[in-house]
Amino acid sequence: MIRILLPLIGLALLTVLPNYISDYGLGLLIGAATYVTLASAWALFSGQTHYISLATVAFYGTGAYTVAVLNEALPYPAVLACAALIGGAMALVVGLSTLRLQGVYFVIFSFGLAELTRQLITWYEVNVTGTLGRYIFLDITTRQIYWQMLALGAATLALTAWINRSRLGLALRVIGDDETVAAHSGINLARTKLIAFVLSAMILTLAGAITSPRYVYVEPAIVFNPTVSFLTVIMALLGGANRLWGPALGAVPLFLAFEYLSSNFPDTYPIFLGLLFIGVVFLVPNGLLAKLETLTARKAPQTKEART
Amino acid sequence: MTGISRRAALRALSFGVTSTLALTAGMALAEGDTVKIGYAVARTGPSATGAGITTIPNYELWVDSVNKAGGLTLPDGSKKMIEVVEYDNRSANQDLVRAIERLASQDKVDLILPPWGTGANLAIAPLMAKFGYPQLAVTAVTDKAPEFAARWDRSFWMLGGGHDYAKGLVDVLAAARDAGTINGKVAVVSVADGFGIDLINGARPAFEEAGFELVYDKTYPLGTSDFAALMSEAQGSGADSFVAFSYPPGSFGMTKTAQSMGYNPKVFYISVGGAFPIYPGVADGKAEGVMAIGGVNADSPAIQDYFARHTEFTGKAPDSWASAITYASLEMLEQAVERVGLDHAALAAELSGGTFETVIGEVKLEDNQLRDLWWVGQWQGGAFRAVNPGDKDGASAPVIPKPEW
Amino acid sequence: MSFLSIKGAVKQFGGLRAVDGVSFTLKKGEIVGLLGPNGSGKTTLINLVSGALPATAGEIRLNGQRLTGLRRDRIARAGVARTFQLVRILPSLSLIENVKITAVFGHNAHWGRAAERVAREALEMVGLSDRAEAQAGDLTYIDQKRLELARALAAEPEILLLDEWLAGLNPTELSEGIDLIRKLHQGGLTILMVEHIIDAVRALCPRVVVMNSGQLIADEATDAALSDPSVITAYLGGEVDA
Amino acid sequence: MLMTTLILGLVLGGTYALLALGLTLQYGIARIMNLAYGELTLAAAFLVVAFFQGAGLSPLLSLPAIALAGYGAGWLLYQVMMRPLVARSGGSGRLEVDSILATFGLLFLIQGVLLVSFGADFTSISYLDRGVSVLGVSVALNRLIAFGICILAGTALVTALRTTSWGLRMRAVALTPGSAPLVGIDVNRVARQGFALGSALAAIGGASVSMYQTFSATDGVVFTMKALVIVIMGGVGNVPGALAAGFALGLLETFVATAIDPGLTLAATFAIFLAVLLWRPQGLFGARS
């Protein structure tokens, strides 16, 4: 019971928090909520299956672009629904063709996908619509953006929790460990991966759509910023991508660290960022949660003995 | 607190580029004795290059000059030193928006200077309006400036729109064609992003109206590094005029490619980067006659003095397009503060209605926009001189055809 | 009435015919040894049955249902369970989870309590039930083999394919292993086992099929086959290790 | 017209291939997917420009020194940063993830150092950029030189890998890092050499880029992406493949720019890259596994 109650209380507190903080505090909350959502949604697919996707921004940017294109034509909820559907459809097409790629090939493919999406949208806008750069003028307050993102983040975590307990979650974990065993155990590899990929992509797309009113101006070069993909990956891995709370646990401190570094060391910020990454890889290779577990497990060394 | 000494040590790592923040933060000035000015410009990421050329050096130069003169003068004649709060927006709008919120609500700075780039200025406009800060958007080229100025009444748009630059260029070319110097054919390439598209969309109807024929009209993606194919097509098109609505990497690349392949159009026009001080070096000393976007009145003593001070302070000359205007916007701010103080509403009203003495001459905004701008410049005798509008005070006559490379 | 029928199975790798027109059948509840020297195509044949490789030609049916052309997971759900020559466990999952997956996704697709029960029974069967919650990555080799067998059993399969499951065990473990397989057979399970350990084959399988160079060279009672000159030549000619 | 496309495409392809040679060695032999590859290239380019502008040293003269420095830097990087990761992974797939993340950190680190030391400006020098007529098509001399360096480095590398015992060891490690120790090969040493040699080639690539292209401290990822595309197309670790793929890409881009639409050059690059990944993940010129 406590496992459900505690997050609900936390969610309630986070919902009313904007009443007590400055605009900057709210900005920080939005940023943190966005990255918690992105990292969790990324981990929904990549965390269990170990398919490291760098396509996060392909979906995120598509979401922002969808809002930019449709915000004057459709009511806002319909725009969001469209964004989710477009993201899902894109993931379906991509997933059908690519989810058999393994290891580094998938990594590079997903990165190329983000670039291709950006190039194609640019070309389309230039040659077909003749406009590049679109405006989003919506009457949505910063708080509403925050609440939407909070809701999306909470929904992502709830969905992940549910998936983890479902057949889908078990199937994903088996796929992450050994696809051959998975197939011979009766798991439909393509369908399982595709479902998770599409779900994850829909959330990523929605996240891009929800934050987009904050930018006002949308251009492919702005919304398809590859850093978003990289940050998402490192955040999820820092916390532990195969655990429910891992990505969130990685996203919040990293987000705050970036914020601190870029405001206090605007010149040397990338240097510290680089060192931070390298530090994560060397010091917490399995994520913070796993690190915490090994630290606590040292008191009870029985698991060590069973190792050969 | 060990935190402070570590911070100081880390900051010492950032040798030199700026130290305004460290410098002023160290000053033991009581609250209220300083004017806090904040900005969040790109230090890293794709926008860092543009910001590092046009925006940041001018901010630093201005703060330095004001503080050396004893600080900003207020209406009562008292002076207050400027204290800078600076963040890196990492070339990402989500970070930029948050940094502005931080400056406004956390640091409670007195004034906020705008970031570099059209998209960035648009992204912060609603926030600046919400918090009431005047926004002197300089590095934003947009045809929608009138619309934006009306939407956010404390925003000021100071670099014109794509149509203006396109029209200025067409005027120059039309005059040359009417004089029989060049033929009626134009080869034009444009970079596929908001800026390039704005310009080409303005240029197509303007060229058509002036009776030019666009014999080659292509768009290339941002990030293109090889222009050999593009330039050889343009060369083969039979046009006397080559026009590129380009960004610096493209402007430089096309210049070099044209030189190496011996492409000598009578008019060679490039956009951003053409007015950069490094351009003559890029063109291997053969920049003479190259046209580009922007320009300054190179004979004006105020501009010459500004160039000298900029060179002395930052170690390099400013670009001859948006730099001087950026600096002028800061002078406007300085003079407006002297007249009406730091109250945002009064400041905005003064900026909107007042007349200011700046490095680019006397400035008075029309409908919150700076319209008295140079659209086309040309390298002449080692300096980048404004050639259009030709009737504006200080304009040089364009040299067409351009001498061969 | 044949339960598993293999008819003219062919697997071609480039110029090599790893399985070359093999046909035989198994009756329900039968246990049959699949013998042959290294490289004779035994594992390839197992892979054809379980769908790991698509057959170039031929037809494989289980209980009348055509398996050839089906995906691996469909074949698994049709009731074919297998172990691997090189043991494959899922190191980041616990023992019970390792076993549960076939109960969940396999032949009978249980979920919840039922899946848990089937998995526990399978673990019980191989003697690992006391360590159900341990991580599979921490197991010894023999326990990993047991776990793999338990996973195959939890599928509640129609037919079990064992690929040298007894290899690498010490004499005590071997006799335990033989007892375990015998128990499964006595419980009515149909088993096709690739095996090199002749004593184990004698002890368990009344009938063997023997392959050499991709072709079936014998399909007869175990004692007869092991004294069949062609089988002996194949082994002596091809076999390097014992 | 066809001739122009062909020659311009080949020259462009040569510069691309040169960029990719080092990466294919690093990934093929050391198994490190080096996302900071472009930053290494850039660092070399900045150094060449600094020598040129500061000391008047011609890029072609500073090139050997830069290559040597690149080798040293790569050696050190491998020893300090990659080796522990390789040791930790014990040959499992996690090295891929680890190296991607670690070199991503390295990317930022180098970029930060470049920004602090050289500023955010566009850098561009004029060096040998007069035109040379090749079969009637005017080509910039500096690009032609880069093309020459590529051919030289490429053939030298291919020959060394094919004919020397050093090359044999390299190929053995590239093919089966697991069994190479069985025949007495010190895998760590070979991998280190491969990585260092890759870095040296990155430096050479950077030095030639500095002669003909405008660049800034934030451009590294562009080079990495280009190199990656070529490496994948040519088959990972396949040196002749990378050369061929580089040329193919140069021809493709030039063809698309002249015959179809310059706006689609980059899209075409990525499209063909994705197509290769999907239909021939072992590369256009790799053997089917």
UniProtKB/TrEMBL annotation, chain A:
GO-annotated cellular components: plasma membrane
Membrane topology: Multi-pass membrane protein
One function term, GO molecular function aspect: branched-chain amino acid transmembrane transporter activity
Protein localization: Cell membrane
Transmembrane segments: 28-45, 52-70, 76-96, 103-124, 144-163, 194-211, 217-237, 244-263, 269-289
Pfam family, one: BPD_transp_2
Location (main, coarse): membrane
Keywords annotated in UniProt: Cell membrane, Membrane, Transmembrane, Transmembrane helix
Alphabetized InterPro entries for the sequence: ABC_transp_permease, LivM-like
Domain of life of the source: Bacteria
Protein name: Amino acid/amide ABC transporter membrane protein 2, HAAT family
Organism from which the protein derives: Pseudooceanicola nitratireducens
Automatic annotation (TrEMBL), chain B:
Superkingdom: Bacteria
Keywords for the protein's UniProt record, in alphabetical order: Amino-acid transport, Signal, Transport
GO biological process, one term: amino acid transport
Alphabetical list of Pfam families matching this protein: Peripla_BP_6
Stored InterPro entries: BCAA_transport, Leu-bd, Peripla_BP_I, TAT_signal
Classification via CDD domains: PBP1_ABC_ligand_binding-like
Signal peptide stretch: 1-30
The Leucine-binding protein domain, residue ranges: 34-382
Family classification: Belongs to the leucine-binding protein family.
PANTHER family: LEUCINE-SPECIFIC-BINDING PROTEIN (PTHR30483), PERIPLASMIC BINDING PROTEIN OF ABC TRANSPORTER FOR NATURAL AMINO ACIDS (PTHR30483:SF6)
The protein's name in its UniProt record: Amino acid/amide ABC transporter substrate-binding protein, HAAT family
Species of provenance: Pseudooceanicola nitratireducens
TrEMBL record, chain C:
InterPro entries from the UniProt entry: AAA+_ATPase (IPR003593), ABC_AA/LPS_Transport (IPR051120), ABC_transporter-like_ATP-bd (IPR003439), P-loop_NTPase (IPR027417)
CDD domains cross-referenced by the UniProt entry: ABC_Mj1267_LivG_branched
Gene Ontology CC annotations of this record: plasma membrane
Pfam families: ABC_tran
GO terms assigned for molecular function: ATP binding; ATP hydrolysis activity
Keywords attached to this entry: ATP-binding, Nucleotide-binding, Transport
Domain of life: Bacteria
All residue ranges annotated as the ABC transporter domain in the record: 4-238
PROSITE patterns associated with the record: ABC_TRANSPORTER_2 (PS50893)
SUPFAM superfamilies for this protein: P-loop containing nucleoside triphosphate hydrolases (SSF52540)
Keyword Transport (UniProt): yes
Protein name (record): Branched-chain amino acid transport system ATP-binding protein
Lineage: Bacteria, Pseudomonadati, Pseudomonadota, Alphaproteobacteria, Rhodobacterales
Automatic annotation (TrEMBL), chain D:
GO biological process: amino acid transport
Top-level taxon of the source organism: Bacteria
Transmembrane stretches, start-end: 6-25, 37-55, 61-78, 99-120, 140-161, 195-215, 227-252, 259-279
Alphabetized UniProt keyword annotations: Amino-acid transport, Cell membrane, Membrane, Transmembrane, Transmembrane helix, Transport
Topology versus the membrane: Multi-pass membrane protein
One term of GO molecular function: transmembrane transporter activity
Localization (cell): Cell membrane
InterPro entries linked: ABC_transp_permease, BCAA_transport_permease
Gene Ontology cellular component list: plasma membrane
PANTHER family: AMINO ACID ABC TRANSPORTER PERMEASE PROTEIN, BRANCHED-CHAIN AMINO ACID TRANSPORT SYSTEM PERMEASE PROTEIN LIVH
Family: Belongs to the binding-protein-dependent transport system permease family. LivHM subfamily.
Protein name from the UniProt record: Amino acid/amide ABC transporter membrane protein 1, HAAT family
